[in-house]
Known about the structure:
Layout lengths: L4 H12 L7 E9 L6 E10 L8 E2 L2 E9 L1 E6 L5 E4 L3 E4 L5 E6 L6 E10 L6 E2 L4
Antiparallel strand pairs: 1-2, 2-9, 3-10, 4-7, 4-9, 5-6, 5-8
Amino acid sequence: MFRYLPLALAACATLAHAAPPEPVVTTLMHQALSDAPGKEVMMLTVDYAPGAADPVHRHDAHGFVYVLEGTIVMGVEGGKEKTLRAGETFYEGPRDVHTVGRNASRTKPARFVVFLLKDKDKPALIPVGSH
């Protein structure tokens, strides 16, 4: 019976250190701004499964978050983490490095809308190396 214990403990340790689920991002719209040449707006929804988290990244854009359901934790480099519930908002500037973005719950999903004001030729998300 005990000869399988090391194998069972190793399997549990592997599961405990597995990467969190990735968020599901859906683009709702892109809209060029005729009175601001070279700029566009992107609207996205982000669905976090229980325990989901974002990798460290930046947007090179003004980012506005509005939580639709669940509870999320957001934070940028040099700032404090903020826990947001449905109906609450978060702002991320063009130079901010988004160091924390995750579902606060390991049992319930979370969903939010992201509104990005950005240059047309820039990607929506720019990965940042490990911090």
